Amino acid sequence: MSTPILPNELAEIVTGLLINPSIFGELDMQSEHQEFMLEIGRIVGNYCGGYAYWVKPGNPDSNHLSNDGTPPLLMVGPDNSLPSLHQNVWAYYVSSGWEGEDVDGIEQGEPLNATQITAMRSQLQSLLIKSANKLPTPNTLLADVEIRDERIAEGIELPGEHKDTYRLVIEKTPTDHQVRFRVYSKSLDPVSSIIAQHGLTGHIGIQDGKPALSLGVSEGNLSVHVRSDVQRGLFIYHDIGSTPYYLSMPINQNEPEVSGSYYPCDSSYWLFDARSELANRAFEQHKFNHGRLIVDNDGWKIDEDHWMIPVYFVNPNDGDSLRGFFKMQFAIDSTFVLSVTDGLYDLV
Questions:
Q1: Cβ(264)–Cβ(247) under 8 Å?
Q2: Is 0.70 topped by the overall pTM?
């Protein structure tokens, strides 16, 4: 099971191994540390130019990485893969700028001054500090419980393979605000860091304004997807190429059609009933600013997602009632309210 490492995390590892490898319990011998230092230098040279050819040892009679020891020195020479002799990644650390060197095929470039060197090194050093403050926020643990076949609690005798105890772990991610869960055999706990936790894994989130669920047997293989239209049913589909298909429909406007099955689960009247309850409650709780409201009205006028009810107000000048409106707009195929407005017709 692979472990993802971020660039700032890799920088921390390399920094630790170069500056104080003892915190990892690695590179105990000076020769090992010098070989590692040389390899890092060669990697930089392979991508940015220059060649690291030797590490001058520190004082063998003292801890070469301690404050009072003599540190090892990476010896780097110029070559024709450098962008220029005086403008390259090494130039901020080569005080003489390889003065006097003449390498065929590269320009000399303008030597860096002390101000440029100080500014760049300060920026690089601050990157290490800033990156340490940008570690990914861990997932929020919502639940971690053990579950078993419900028939065990009922005293029903089951075969051995049905008596396994599983763990249900539910977490919320800090970045995409999805809820992730996994159900796996508790027997995997001792090896969970090296073996994928196969069982039932899923992501619960909101896609295109509707609840969505992706399922699989492991985190890296969520190939079955369920989307609710909130009103009438569920659309269940697989990733392309996984199974035969029975129905094709677009999942959203930015994706091609995928194939799956639609399962009707409820009455088509649900959305109207839900909107009616929400609209009536919003109307009852709304604070109008056009005088005293006359309760009698003509009922809701509905144009798909736009709901409007005519209202009347007492005329402060003792004339005819003032005719106004109360409007609500719902999102398409949803109970989500996009806007609520009111007003007087003679002012519109």
A1: no
A2: no
Cα–Cα distances (Å) from 96 to 51, 101, 114, 125, 169, in that order, read 17, 10, 11, 22, 59
Contact 332, 303 (CB under 8 A): no
Taking only the tens place, the pLDDT of each residue in 256-287 is: 555 667 677 666 677 888 888 888 888 888 88
Q: Which amino acid is at 303?
A: D
Residue 274 belongs to what domain range?
270-347
* 3-state helix, strand and coil shares in percent for the chain, rounded to the nearest 5: 25, 30, 45
Angle at which helices 7-19 and 114-132 cross, to 10°: 110
Q: Which two tokens stand for residue 29?
A: 């011998």
Measured CA to CA, the distance from residue 225 to residue 242 in angstroms comes to: 12
In the chain, how many H helices and how many E strands? 5, 16
Residue closest to 230 by CA, chosen among 110, 331, 304: 331
Q: Which stretch of 32-36, 124-128, 233-237, 255-259 has the lowest confidence by average pLDDT?
A: 255-259
Mark whether 202 and 154 lie in a shared domain. yes
CA proximity to 53, closest of 69, 64, 42, 67: 42
Q: Does residue 108 belong to any structural domain of this protein?
A: yes
